[in-house]
Design a protein that fits this description.
The chain has 105 residues and is mostly helical. The chain has helices at residues 2-8, 37-58, 82-91. It is built from three helices and no strands. This is Berberine/berberine-like domain-containing protein.
């Protein structure tokens, strides 16, 4: 994938093979009571905050976040890099995929 992206000039996600090793973490949750939704979200946020703090402590931070697994409070587009984000903003078509709606971007 990285070789093909390099030939094309880079991937649309800002990944180019020099990003180092990356982990894709998916937290899948279920709960029985509707009232517990906010608690589950709070715990998920805490877990990802701890993950981020640990990778920062280790010096292995990478801003890339896999778009398909993000929550509304995460910002995957910024991880693509400023140039890619600006390109996506310019080419975001009215009525198409809403990349920036409800995101903290």
């Amino acid at each position: 994938m990285f070789r093909a992206s390099a030939r094309a000039g880079d991937s649309s996600m800002g990944l180019n093979g020099t990003n180092g090793n990356l982990f894709n973490v998916l937290l899948a949750t279920t709960w029985a009571e509707n009232k517990d939704g906010m608690l589950i979200e709070l715990q998920a946020r805490r877990m990802f905050t701890r993950f981020k703090a640990e990778v920062e402590r280790l010096g292995v931070t990478n801003p890339y976040v896999y778009l398909n697994y993000t929550a509304s409070w995460q910002d995957p587009i910024s991880g693509y890099g400023a140039n890619k984000k600006a390109f996506l903003r310019r080419t975001n078509v009215s009525g198409g995929l809403k990349l920036f709606v409800g995101r903290e971007t």
